[in-house]
Design a protein that fits this description.
It comes from Aspergillus keveii. This is Beta-glucuronidase. It is an enzyme of class 3 (hydrolase). Belongs to the glycosyl hydrolase 2 family. This protein has 608 residues and is an alpha/beta fold. It folds into three domains: 167 residues, Sandwich (Jelly Rolls); 93 residues, Sandwich (Immunoglobulin-like); 312 residues, Alpha-Beta Barrel (TIM Barrel), CATH 3.20.20.80. Helix content is 19%, strand content 30%. The strands form seven sheets. Strands 23-24-25-26-27-28-29-30 form an eight-stranded parallel β-barrel, surrounded by five helices. The chain has a six-stranded antiparallel β-sheet with strand order 3-2-4-9-6-7, with no helix packed on it. Strand 21 and strand 22 form a beta hairpin. The longest helix has 19 residues. It is globular, with a radius of gyration of 25 Å. The chain starts with 10 loop residues before the first strand and ends in a 15-residue tail after the last helix. 45% of the residues are buried.
Length: 608
C-alpha cells in the first residue's frame, strides 16, 4: 500500500479537522444510519482521551464514533477514489452512508478502501468511523477486560503507557487513474563506487497497451538512469550513499504511459530512495560497511492533550532536540510511528529500529510488580495461536509500509516478551521466519527483559542483534551504584560470552522528578539519573560487543491512571513531557557530541 501523494495524475484531499463524536457501548449501535449531533466534536488527528474533561470519555472501554460529511470532487469522474486512514487505534470500521466498507484490526498501520462504486463524483456522503480500543489476549498489544459490579468495563494491559485511542493520524480522500501504480518495492546494493537499486512495480491490473517508464533522478534533479521494465535494476555510477547524519535521497519516478497519444502520462508515483547497505558481521553492526554505534532513545508518540495524535511541530522539535543532544538513532517504542516520522528520518539521516506493537507478551512482569502468582503467558487461555496470527499480520503490515525507508535498519519483533517461559520459542520462531521471508535485507531483534538472563532465555539465538532492557541502579540495586556497576557488567559479559553478537542497550535509566536535587545517590533526583547514565556508560565502554545505547526515555510520558507507582506518568525521560531538559541531558550531550566523550567509534554523528 503506497502512501497517497498528489501530482498531475493524482489528487489528494485531507479529511483532517473537526469531526462529530460520540461514545457507544461494547457493540456498535448503528450511528452510521443517522447524523451524529455536533454536541461533541473532536479534532483529527488526535487521541480522544484527553481532549474533553469527562472521565467517562478518558477511561472509556469500547467503541466510539467519528462522523463528518465528505464530497467527492465532480472532476473525478474518470478516476478511482479511496478513503485512507493512517491509523485507527485499535480497530476501525468505516461506513459510507449506511454501508460498511472496511473493517481493520491493528492500531498503528494504515488501511484504505475503494469507494468508486459506492459514491458518484459530485456526491456528498456521510462518513462514519467506529473505533474500538479494546485489548484482549488475541490482540497486539494484548490485554483483558474486566466487568465491574456496577457494570462498568475496565481495561487491563501489560504495557507501561496509556492506551490512547481514536483517529490519532490523518485521514485522506484521494484519487488515482483507472489504471494505476499500487505497489513499489526497492532494495539497494553497493559494489565499490557503484550503487544498484532493485525495483518491483505493481499495478492494479494488466497494463495491456500501456507502458512503464522508470526514471531515477539525483538530488539536483538530473536523470541518472532509466528503464521500461516492471521489475529490474538501475545502476548508479559514483553513487552518493545514504549515511547516518548525511542523508542523500534519489527520486525513483514510476510512470504509466499511453501509446496514443505517445508517452502521455497516465499515472505517476515518486519514491525517495536512499542507497545504503546494512549488515551484522561478527559483533559489529555495519552501515555501508562501516561499524555503527547507536546513540539515542526509546521514545513515545505522546504529547499533552493530543495523546498519540501526530503533531508535526512536536515531531520536528523532537528531532531538533535529538540532534542537539547528539542522538543518531531511536527505536519506535512500542509500535510503528506515523510514516511522516520515518520520512523525516530518511531526509535527515536518523537511524531507526522499527518495532511492532507486540508489547506486553509477559504476564510474569505484572505478577511480579503486584506480588501475584504468574499466569502462564503462552497458553490456550492467554497468548495463543490467535495472538500469534494477529502478531504475524502486524509484522506483514509493518514491513509492507516501511520496507522502502532507508532510515529503517532493523525490525524489532517484540518488546520484553517472556523469553524464558515455556512456549515462547514455539510462538516466536514462526514470526522470525515470516519476517526474514518478507525482508531478507534487514537484521532482526527483540528487546530482552531482565528476568530472561543469558542462561534462561530461549530465543536469542534466532535473532541477529541482542537488545537488552536493563535498569541496574533503579529496579536492581536501587540507590546503590557501587553494586549496580559490577552487576551490569557481569550481565553484559554473560551475553557476550554466550552469543558473541552485537549488543544494543535498548533501555536503561531512572525515573526522575524535574527540579528535585540532592547530594548523594538519591533516587528520583536529577543528579541520580545523571549518575546512573554515567555508571552505565563506563560499563558499555568496557564491554566490546556493546554497539549502542538507547536511554529510556526521550521524554516523560503518560501511563495508566491505575498504576499507583506512577505519579502523572512515567518520569524516565531526560526531557519533561513538554520537552524541558533535565540535568541528565548534559551527560548525554557531552558523551555524544564532544570528541572526548564516547570511547567507541561513532562515525555518524560527526557528519551532522
Amino acid at each position: 500500500m503506497l502512501k497517497p501523494q498528489q501530482n498531475a495524475a493524482r489528487e489528494l484531499v485531507s479529511l483532517d479537522g473537526i469531526w462529530n463524536f460520540a461514545l457507544a457501548g461494547p457493540e456498535p449501535n448503528e450511528p452510521w444510519t443517522r447524523q451524529i449531533p455536533p454536541s461533541l466534536q473532536i479534532p483529527v488527528p488526535a487521541s480522544y482521551n484527553d481532549i474533553f474533561v469527562d472521565r467517562k470519555i478518558r477511561d472509556h472501554v469500547g467503541w466510539v464514533y467519528y462522523q463528518r460529511s465528505v464530497t467527492v470532487p465532480r472532476s473525478w469522474s474518470d478516476q478511482r477514489y479511496f478513503i485512507r486512514f493512517d491509523a485507527a487505534t485499535h480497530q476501525g470500521r468505516v461506513y459510507a452512508d449506511n454501508a460498511l466498507v472496511v473493517d481493520h484490526i491493528g492500531g498503528y498501520t494504515p488501511f484504505e478502501v475503494d469507494i468508486t462504486e459506492l459514491v458518484k463524483p459530485g456526491q456528498t456522503f456521510r462518513l462514519t468511523v467506529a473505533v474500538n480500543n479494546e485489548l484482549t489476549w488475541h490482540t497486539i498489544p494484548p490485554g483483558k477486560i474486566e466487568t465491574l459490579e456496577n457494570g462498568d468495563r475496565k481495561q487491563h494491559y501489560q504495557h507501561d503507557f496509556f492506551n490512547y485511542s481514536g483517529l490519532a493520524r490523518s485521514v485522506w480522500l484521494y484519487s488515482v487513474p483507472k489504471t494505476f501504480i499500487n505497489a513499489i518495492a526497492v532494495k539497494t546494493h553497493v559494489d565499490g563506487t557503484t550503487g544498484k537499486i532493485d525495483f518491483d512495480i505493481g499495478s492494479n491490473g494488466p497494463l495491456d497497451e500501456l507502458q512503464l517508464r522508470i526514471s531515477l533522478f539525483d538530488e539536483e534533479g538530473e536523470l541518472v538512469n532509466q528503464t521500461s521494465s516492471q521489475k529490474g535494476s538501475l545502476e548508479i555510477p559514483s553513487v552518493h550513499l545514504w549515511q547516518p547524519g548525511a542523508a542523500y535521497l534519489y527520486q525513483l519516478r514510476a510512470e504509466i504511459l499511453s501509446q496514443d497519444p505517445a508517452d502521455d502520462v497516465v499515472d505517476a508515483y515518486e519514491l525517495p530512495v536512499g542507497v545504503r547497505t546494512v549488515k551484522v558481521s561478527g559483533n559489529q553492526f555495519l552501515i555501508n560497511g562501516e561499524p555503527f554505534y547507536f546513540t539515542g532513545f526509546g521514545k513515545h508518540e505522546d504529547t499533552p492533550i493530543r495523546g498519540k495524535g501526530h503533531d508535526p511541530a512536536y515531531m520536528v522539535h523532537d528531532f531538533q532536540l535529538m540532534r542537539w543532544v547528539g542522538a543518531n538513532s531511536f527505536r519506535t517504542t512500542h509500535y510503528p510511528y506515523a510514516e511522516e516520522v520515518l520520512e523525516y528520518a530518511d531526509r535527515h539521516g536518523i537511524v531507526v529500529i522499527d518495532e511492532t506493537a507486540a508489547v506486553g507478551l509477559n504476564l510474569a512482569i505484572v505478577a511480579g510488580v503486584l506480588g501475584l502468582k504468574a499466569t502462564p503467558t503462552f497458553s490456550p487461555d492467554t497468548m495463543n495461536h490467535q495472538t500469534q496470527a494477529a502478531h504475524a499480520q502486524a509484522i506483514r503490515e509493518l514491513v509492507a509500509r516501511d520496507k522502502n525507508h532507508p532510515s529503517v535498519v532493523m525490525w524489532a519483533l517484540a518488546n520484553e516478551p517472556s523469553s524464558s517461559e515455556s512456549g515462547v520459542r514455539e510462538y516466536m520462531e514462526p514470526l522470525v521466519a515470516l519476517t526474514r521471508e518478507l525482508d531478507p535485507t534487514r537484521p532482526l531483534c527483540f528487546a530482552n527483559e531482565n528476568q530472561a538472563n543469558a542462561q534462561a532465555d530461549y530465543i536469542s539465538d534466532l535473532f541477529d542483534v541482542l537488545c537488552l532492557n536493563r535498569y541496574y541502579g533503579w529496579y536492581i540495586n536501587t540507590g546503590n551504584l557501587e553494586a549496580a556497576e559490577p552487576g551490569l557488567e557481569k550481565d553484559l559479559r554473560s551475553w557476550q560470552s554466550k552469543y558473541d553478537k552485537p549488543i544494543i542497550m535498548t533501555e536503561y535509566g531512572a525515573d526522575t522528578l524535574a527540579g528535585l536535587h540532592a547530594v548523594g545517590d538519591v533516587p528520583w533526583s536529577e543528579e541520580y539519573q545523571a549518575n546512573i547514565l554515567e555508571m552505565s556508560h563506563r560499563v558499555f565502554d568496557r564491554v566490546e560487543n556493546v554497539v549502542g545505547e538507547h536511554v529510556w526515555n526521550f521524554a516523560d510520558f503518560q501511563t495508566p491512571s491505575t498504576f499507583i507507582f506512577r505519579v502523572d506518568g512515567n518520569k524516565k525521560g531526560v526531557f519533561t513531557r513538554d520537552r524541558r531538559p533535565k540535568s541528565a541531558v548534559q551527560v548525554l550531550r557531552k558523551r555524544w557530541t564532544e570528541p572526548s566523550g564516547l570511547k567507541k567509534g561513532q562515525y555518524s554523528t560527526r557528519k551532522q
